[in-house]
Specification:
- With 232 residues, the protein is an all-alpha fold.
- It has a single domain, classed as Up-down Bundle (3 helical TM bundles of succinate and fumarate reductases), CATH 1.20.1300.10.
- 72% of the residues lie in helices and 0% in strands.
- It is built from seven helices and no strands.
- Helix 1 runs antiparallel to helix 6, helix 1 packs parallel to helix 7 and helix 4 packs across helix 6.
- The longest helix is centred in the middle third of the chain and has 34 residues.
- The N and C termini lie far apart (69 Å).
- Bound molecules: protoporphyrin IX containing FE.
- Protoporphyrin IX containing FE binds next to helix 1, helix 3, helix 4, helix 5 and helix 6.
- Keywords: Membrane, Transmembrane, Transmembrane helix.
- It comes from Ornithinimicrobium kibberense.
- This is Succinate dehydrogenase cytochrome b subunit.
- InterPro entries: Cytochrome_b-558, SQR/QFR_C/D.
Length: 232
């Protein structure tokens, strides 16, 4: 019985896997940088609704008159969308490749531990993609509302999280995001070859737990503070 781990013939067409993994690592890190900034911005609501709206306004007018109104915002939006599209494309290509390899030849190494993480990353990634679409329809376009529609971004946030089910939806999304980041950060470091020693591997594991905790806890502080009436 053949036990080779070589990819199937059709799996070898298209970009090399290391390129796809590098694209995933770089675009994933762009996403993490954005999440840290977004989370920091959200924490402004603890200072007060005015501080939050001031921050939202500042992002729209930053760089004026050198940039047009919302100039920076559009630069960020385009960069983020490009990162997201590349990240999903690389993931989908690798997913397809893994399926093609499995249907060609049964490879023992595809069973067990590694395969669990691969599946969790793919299905969790799809859940996060669904959340991002929902999130834009909710806070940016207000096509979907939890509570009422508001002109002020702070009022939208305060209304949403005074509903327990609003908090629950965002909590569920943050749990998916946390699991994805935990393994994704680790995977990105592996791709970049940073695990040169056992000590290094431990440091990477620690860094991935730290970054994930900061993002998840930081994002969930405002919703819980609002739900428990701490901001009144
Ligand atoms: C508890 C968690 C979160 C809260 C309370 C929150 C809140 C918000 C709010 C209020 C806006 C609209 C800002 C404005 O109108 O000025 C926004 C926009 C946005 N959020 Fe979040 N967010 C959360 C998590 C996330 C996560 C996890 C992601 C990405 C995976 C994300 C991605 C975005 C994006 C892409 C925009 C659109 C920015 C734009 O182009 O205007 N958010 N968020």
């Amino acid at each position: 019985m053949a036990t080779t781990t070589a990819p199937a013939r059709e799996a070898r067409t298209g970009p090399p896997s290391i390129l796809l993994k590098t694209v995933m690592a770089v675009t994933g890190l762009v996403g993490i940088a954005y999440l840290l900034i977004h989370m920091y911005g959200n924490l402004m609501i603890l200072v007060g609704p005015e501080a939050f709206d001031e921050y939202a306004h500042h992002i729209r007018t930053f760089g004026e008159p050198m940039l047009p109104e919302k100039g920076l915002l559009w630069i960020i939006r385009v960069a983020l969308l490009a990162s997201l599209v590349l990240h999903v494309w690389a993931a989908a290509t690798m997913w397809h490749r893994a399926n093609a390899a499995r249907s060609q030849r049964y490879v023992m190494t595809r069973r067990g531990y590694g395969n669990f993480y691969a599946k969790a990353m793919r299905w969790g990634g799809l859940a996060i993609l669904t959340f991002i679409i929902f999130h834009l329809l909710h806070f940016t376009t207000q096509t979907v509302t939890i509570g009422e529609a508001h002109a002020s971004p702070a009022a939208r946030v305060l209304d949403t999280f005074s509903h327990w089910w609003g908090v629950l939806i965002y909590l569920a999304a943050m749990i998916f995001l946390g699991l994805h980041l935990l393994h994704g950060f680790w995977g990105a470091a592996m791709t970049m070859g940073l695990n040169s020693s056992l000590k290094r591997a431990e440091q990477i594991r620690f860094a991935s737990i730290l970054v994930t905790t900061i993002i998840v806890v930081g994002f969930m502080i405002p919703p819980f503070a609002i739900l428990f009436g701490l901001l009144d």
